Amino acid sequence: MLKEHKINSFPPGGTSVQYLKGIGEKRARELVKVGVETIGDLMQYYPRRYLDRSNITPIKDLKIDETATVVATIQTCGIQKGKRARFVMIVTDGSGSLNCVWFNMLQFWQKKFKPGQLLALSGKTGYFGGKQMVHPDFDMLSDDEESPYSRDEFLHTGKIIPIYPSTEALSHVGLDSRGFRRVIHWLLRQYGDKITDTLPPDFVSQLNLLPFQLAIKNIHFPESFHQLKQAQTRLKFEELFMLEFMLAFRKHTILQTQKGIVFSKVGEQTKQLSEKLPFDLTASQKKVLYEIHADMKKPHPMYRLLQGDVGSGKTIIALIAMIIAVENGYQAALMAPTEILAEQHFLTFRCYLEALGIDIRLLIGAQRKAEREEILTALQNGTCNIIIGTHAVIQQAVSFQKLGLVVIDEQHRFGVSQRALLTEKGLNPDVLVMTATPIPRTLSLTVYGDLDVSIIDELPSGRKPIITSWRYENKREDIYKFVKSQVAAGRQAYVVFPLIEESEKLDLKSATEGYEKLRSGIFADKQMALLHGRMKSEEKDAIMTAFKSGDLQILVSTTVIEVGVDVPNATVMVIENAERFGLTQLHQLRGRVGRGGEQSYCIMIAKYPITEDAMTRLKTMTETTDGFKIAEVDLQLRGPGEFFGSRQHGMPELKIANPLTDSKLLLKARDEAFRIAGDLKLKDEMLHYLNQNTFYQSYKNKIEMMRIG
Ligand code: ADP
Ligand code: MG
């Protein structure tokens, strides 16, 4: 029984699950690992799919190599000794029989399965002396007194059965799908009627949504698919609304309460820079610059995302924004994810800034102590106007005299807390974050929902699309011959070796070996160098400078050059073991070429055989150079969770809604959230309602942690 005295309100959203009948400490410990701490979490532990009669295949209709679900009774089962011991089970459903085989945890299965039990089994059908499934997914449907379903109920009424996600550890403590079904069924029967709504009931009925209580009951044990759909809609809306409301709330709070800096002047120095630029800004660049400056003039802090495909020219925009900050008497800081990129920005900016009398410095981890001290002092007393650096600039020892603008380059490479640390070094400084990872609008409304977005949607004129192809290794020789011909024509080339494992050491080994082979072989007469992350700063510096100036013709590298590096004369990018790279990475790497007026090439070499997903990635690269399309395919392949590591963004995880497929619902939730958060009275009423709610508490805590920095 639920120990009532532990619970003083219902829904007991905030009460630990360990006080529930049938849970206890041991199970509670395992549940925490899948994010279920409270009774509210357990009620919101949604099924991952549903079984009903319409998606069950009779065994006689199973097709070889196709995945299907059968519902069948165990006839015989047991361990078979032999060359390779196995657990074998024969099941039948009246239409035929099927073998199921497991090669691991034999004792565990031996204990678990008994003839007569009714199971739902899902897997790919194979053939081995008869139809067979190896390591099928299964769900125990057997009737026993505690099961919410009896065999008759299932087989004759066609009830929809929820299938819950489980882990091996959870199964060991009895919480397989069936265990969850039992616990949640009991929980809802006992307490379901006491669940109050998480959103104001008027609001819910205005939007034609199911009340929360009904939605929770129906998401677990729906009577029909129509009911299930309604429940899903309500719960998805709720999740998206909570997220957007917090984003809206934060945005309006910043607007209304935080006082920011007014950068009113755009004067001589900015003008001088425009005159010095060797090119005209594109229309897109002018537009975003206008948007950024309009923000900087306002008396509240800017929180703006600058999005633009690889090579679209974001860097110069950052530079101009920083000059505006300096002209108005403030300091500016730019943080980049790698030393190579920070150094490159530093060198480019210094060329422009020296003539303007603006003091710019570089701060990276590898500097000597005396040099570092000197920079820190200059930042503190204000003689240094602009600092470019890696995460070294967020170290505690770094303090500014008057930090007014913070720019984060390639922001997706930074964690949320790192970004926050930099903004905290100023007093509500303006913030500009830049990214080359274009994401579909609906997704950006969740990840960047409280930022204003500026988009550069064109490349500088005169760029030719990069010719891209992929080949298996047997064509390597031809490929390198081609590289040679490009070098002979005065161009430069990159050869990139991949991350072999999550270890920089092995990573380096593949690049080193590849480098040695090329240097002693086909490129023996060329100037080339190896670049990797473990080199000393000065070495890296020297190599990049030599490559930039054209002294080096071929640069062999690990993925350290993935982001940002800008050498317009480089026209060939060869990617070894390209099948190992993600799409976004491939696109970034390709973006290192095609930065000048010459025709550029990207050639990806794959090691046979490759997976279907890898094939899709390589093909996508050859079919388009549009970063937006590439991001969409990437998202489809990986799903939003992985695509945007939610931990990194400090985003609350979405349990049921998917911003891609539920875009209509998302837009509706966002409209409502911003409408309410923008109206003082409505906002207060909503907050008051939400604050009473225990379901909402854990959500609120997660969102509290979400900071753009
Ligand atoms: P990214 O947006 O990927 O950071 P960069 O800012 O590094 O791109 O710009 C890519 C290259 O294009 C650089 O060599 C830069 O000098 C050049 N560039 C930027 N803006 C223009 C422009 N308007 N016209 C021509 N070249 C430009
Ligand atoms: Mg860049």
Describe, in plain words, how this protein is organized in 3D.
α10 packs antiparallel against α12 and α13 packs across α19. With 709 residues, this protein is an alpha/beta fold. The N terminus and C terminus are likely disordered. It folds into five domains: 84 residues; 104 residues, Nucleic acid-binding proteins (OB fold (Dihydrolipoamide Acetyltransferase, E2P), Beta Barrel), CATH 2.40.50; 89 residues, no CATH class; 153 residues, P-loop containing nucleotide triphosphate hydrolases (Rossmann fold, 3-Layer(aba) Sandwich), CATH 3.40.50.300; 158 residues, P-loop containing nucleotide triphosphate hydrolases (Rossmann fold). It has a seven-stranded mixed β-sheet. A seven-stranded parallel β-sheet has the order 12-13-11-14-15-10-16, sandwiched between helices. The protein contains 26 helices and 22 strands. The protein is globular, with a radius of gyration of 30 Å. It binds adenosine-5'-diphosphate (ADP) and magnesium ion. The site of magnesium ion has 4 residues, from loops.
